[in-house]
Structures are given as C-alpha cells and as structure tokens.
Amino acid sequence: MTIMTGLGVSGGTAVGVVALVALPAPLPDEAASTDRAGDLARVSVALEDVAARFDATAASLTGDAAEMISAAAAIARDPGLLDAVEEHLQSEGPAHALHAAVDDYAKQFEELGGYFAERVTDLLDVGARAEALLLGRPLPGVPELTEPSVVIAHDLAPADTAVMDPAMVVGIVTEDGGRTSHTAILASQRGIPAIVQAKGALEFSSGLRVGIDGDSGELVVEPDEAWLAAKDEKRRARERISERSGPGRTSDGHPVMLLANVGNVADAELAGAADVEGVGLFRTEFLHLSAATAPSVADQSDEYVRVLRPFGDRPVTVRTLDAGADKPLAFADLGPEPNPALGRRGLRLMKEREDLLDDQLAALAMAAAETGALVKVMAPMVATKQEAAWFTDRAHAAGLPAAGVMIEVPGAALRAHQVLEITDFASLGTNDLAQYTMAADRMVGELSDLLDPWQPAVLDVVAAACEGGRATGKPVGVCGESAGDALMALVLTGLGVTSLSMSMQRVPMVRWALSRHTTEECVRLARIARDADSAVAAQEAVRSAASPELTDLL
C-alpha cells in the first residue's frame, strides 16, 4: 500500500478507480493565416459556442457553481480576447493565434492577481475548448465514467467540477490548486472528498484502485483492509455526528454561534432550512459583478428580501459590495492599478462611489423593514478607525442599527480596540488576513504553506483582534474557511472568537468538536498553537492535545 500526501480541502473518504484528465494534446502544425477575416470569424464562432455551452450549464446549476460557469462564459465573450487573436493572426494560423492570445491574457491575469488570478483556470479552459472545436477534436475534460472514480487532473475548471455526479466522482485529486481554488470550493459544496497539491498523482494509471481522505490529504494506492475498515468506521461516526442539532456550545456551556456563509438566493434557501443559527457572511457581489449598469435600489431590495426570508428571526450579516480593482465593475471602473489586491477595493471603492454604497444600504434597510429580519451590515477592506467610523455612521443613518467591519487587514486587527470603539461588531476574513499577514497571494498554490491558517503569526493577528473585542465588549466572529475546521474552531474559540461562519456541510463536526471541550481547554489549545514555530507544528500540537474522540475522526 503506497501513500501519497497532498493538501486536503474537502473532507470525507472514498475509494474508486483512477480516471485521469489528460492534458490537452499539442497543436498540429498550422500555416499562417491567409484569410484573417475568415479565420477570425471561425475563432469567434468557436468562442461563442463555448460561451453558449457554459450558459446552458449555468442555467442548470445554482449558487457559486452557476456564478463560476457564468463568469467563464463572460471570458469567452470578452472582445479583448478576440482582438488579441486578430493580432496573432498576422503571423499564425487560427488555432495557434487563439492559443497565443489565451497565453497572453493568462499572463496579464496572473500579474493583476486577486479576482483576475482566480479566472486563469477558466481562461485556459475556454481556450482549450475553443481550440478543440476549431480542430474538430473532442472537448477536453473529465472522461466518461462507468464506475465510481477518483478524478485526477493537473487542475480542474469550474465547468468540470460543477457538473460532477457525486455517485460517480467519489473523489478529486489535483496536482495544482490551493485551499481557496474553485476545485476546493465546489468539491466541498458538493460533498466530494478532494485533495490538491498532490504532486506526482498524474503518474498513476487509469483504472488503478485508490483511496482518498480529504481531511488528512492521504491518497492511497490499493488500500488494504485495515485502511478501508478504519475509514469506514470514521464515515459511520461522522454520520452519527451529523444527526446532532442545536446551537454551538462548549462542554461547559459557553456559546459560540454556528452560522452559514451564503452567496445568493439559492444558497440562502438551502441554509435557511438547515440547522444553523443564522448567516455570518452574505456576499452581495452576485447582483453587481455581471451587470452593465448599477442595479437599482428596488431591484436590490427585491433580491435581499428573498435572501432574508428563509432565516426568520435569525441574524443575517451582510457584507457590503466587495468589488473594485480586482473585481471590476463595468459601471465603476477606477482604472488599472499596479497591485489590485492592495488597491481601491471594498470600502475604498465605496468612498469614491458613495452612491453605490448608499443605494445598497437603502435597499438593505427596505428589505429588513419588509421581512422584519435582523440585518447586520459590515464593510470589507477596513484598515483604520476613521474608515470604520465613516461606514458605521452611514449605515446607522440609513436605518441599519448593527454596523460592523471585516478585519482582513493586519492594521485593523492590531488596532481593533480602537476600531471596535466605533463600530458594533467585527468579523475576521481569515483568507485575506493570512494573505496580507504573510505577504503571499492566496491564488498561488505553491504558497499554500504560507497561507495555512495555522500559521502562528496569523493566529497572533487573530488574537490581537479578539483582544480588541474583549476590551470593548464587542463580538468578533470568523467568516473565513478556517471557521469550518473543527480543530481550528477550538483554537479560535480559545482566542476569544464569538461566532463561526462556514459552509453548511462543516457545521455538524464543528458543533460536535465544541461540545467535547471546555472553554478552558480551548484557551489552552490556542496557547499551544501560538507557541508553535510553524503551521505544521501548531496543527500537530493541537491535534495531540485535543480530545481523542475528535482527532480519531479527522
């Protein structure tokens, strides 16, 4: 039995045969274009065919999956991509011109970082599909499956992951990708165990029997009976845990609210029916990013009503528009920036376009009045007390009584005692907080070790924010992915976090983990993690010190 270890990003275990996703075949030799207008038209038809197929797929999906596929369709229709193809047709044939144009665009996206870097996989997938149509080749992607399989690829585009049947795709392994890649997000939402950064996995043969553990990151070739028995027992224990219900509590009764992250109406309807205590993060970008003009107050209010209604009297925390340089808005373009991740995004954009923020706050106030919902609003990318005051005053003036801030910038965490004197609550976005603390782009899979939420330096910054919460008596939650890690949830509770917001699938294990530890034990685990000298050492030390009942299931 051979064991390979990658980075587990979607929990659970499974066994299946290997289904390899082949890399695109090299392009054939091709003469330079002698009919540039005709060849450009052929490329345009191929790209529109790809976009139309994506549109059809998106129409059959909901939530993040539908949004990601729609974003890929928009890339296929980007006129700038066709302009780049036209330039390359001066010296190359149509397939090579398309390939070169996609490569040029990919380099630009990577340099821009942030939202654009997240789209590189989509862009390459669009190019590969259009090339296949031009050349009369089969479309790339996951091969037809005839039995439960573990799909292994260099990376997967959302168009592949979003339509996978969990009955046939029992596990996903990629050599590339990171904790916040599309593969990780969609696999988690679909309940498919997944591992990324599994270098060498593509060397496996199709049809080989493998086991996957999306918690530990284990990829096992020809798993033996002992491995299978242990994983089966783990699966049954997790099923028993998922039957538990109720609010989040430590074993000595200390409350830690368990909340859901949602991104649109479909997500809200699913979460509203689940055993969660409310919403810790409602991302509002879905109304804006694909729009040519700013949505009206009435249109926004109608959508917000549909999001709020499923939660009754449970609180819903809304993040105001997190767009800007790295998530461009067609109607609020502030121009190119050399480093979009550090540019005018989030609240910084809203300060330049106050009308967008005022309209959104007005729409939320209308929706809250219509539904009677407990709406809390928070601004992204806040760095100073003055920014927090500007937003809080504006939200209160709009009739929204609970105004808070996202703490994603280390400066805001270190001065949280001042920020929280002004605002009503704070929520830690641990993905961006890790990115900015460790100076590591969270879309670069090779930097996953620096972006690990277990990095002691990141925990120190979280601790500083929680100290500000204690000093002011204000709640501090976490809405980053680390909130859904059962071990990390204990550490965050020990640091002073008052609520944890995550994907719904992760709530049962976090609820159970909290119920097996006292508040004092959580504080001790937090101290152990911060005293470690690396992310790996911190996680292992906490694993060793936590309840064996929990660690046996991880």
Structural topology:
Blueprint: E1 2-5, E2 7-10, E3 13-20, H1 36-59, H2 63-76, H3 79-88, H4 94-112, H5 114-118, H6 120-135, E4 149-153, H7 158-161, E5 169-174, H8 182-190, E6 194-196, E7 209-213, E8 218-221, H9 225-242, E9 257-262, H10 265-272, E10 279-283, H11 297-308, E11 316-319, H12 347-352, H13 354-371, E12 375-379, H14 385-397, E13 402-407, H15 410-414, H16 416-422, E14 425-428, H17 430-438, H18 448-451, H19 456-472, E15 476-478, H20 486-495, E16 499-502, H21 507-515, H22 519-531, H23 535-545, H24 548-551
Parallel strand pairs: 3-4, 4-5, 5-6, 9-10, 9-16, 10-11, 11-12, 12-13, 13-14, 14-15, 15-16
Antiparallel strand pairs: 1-8, 2-6, 3-7, 7-8
Helix pairs in contact: 1-2, 1-6, 2-6, 3-4, 4-6, 10-11, 11-13, 14-16, 16-19, 17-19, 19-22, 20-21, 20-22, 22-23
Structure description:
The chain is an alpha/beta fold and 554 residues long. 48% of the residues lie in helices and 14% in strands. The chain has 24 helices and 16 strands. It has helices spanning 36-59, 63-76, 79-88, 94-112, 114-118, 120-135, 158-161, 182-190, 225-242, 265-272, 297-308, 347-352, 354-371, 385-397, 410-414, 416-422, 430-438, 448-451, 456-472, 486-495, 507-515, 519-531, 535-545, 548-551; strands spanning 2-5, 7-10, 13-20, 149-153, 169-174, 194-196, 209-213, 218-221, 257-262, 279-283, 316-319, 375-379, 402-407, 425-428, 476-478, 499-502. The strands form two sheets. It has an eight-stranded mixed beta sheet. Strands 9-10-11-12-13-14-15-16 form an eight-stranded parallel β-barrel, surrounded by six helices. Strand 5 (169-174), helix 8 and strand 6 (194-196) form a beta-alpha-beta unit. Helix 11 (297-308) packs across helix 13 (354-371). The longest helix has 24 residues, at 36-59. The protein starts with a strand and ends with a helix.
